[in-house]
Amino acid sequence: MALFMRRRKRTIKLNNRLGSRRNKLLISFSLALVALASWLVSSTTEDSRQTYLVAAMDLASNAPISDTTVSTIKLDLQETGSSYLTAETKGKNKFFVKSPLSAGQLIPMSSLLSERFQNCSAVVLALGAPMSSSIAKGDLIDIWSAEQSASIDSIPVQIVTSGELISIKNATDGFSQNTQTIEVCVSVAEIRSVVQAITKRSIVVAVRADSQ
Question: Which of 87, 103, 135, 187 has its CB 3.0 to 4.6 Å from that of 51, i.e. a possible disulfide?
Answer without folding.
Answer: 87
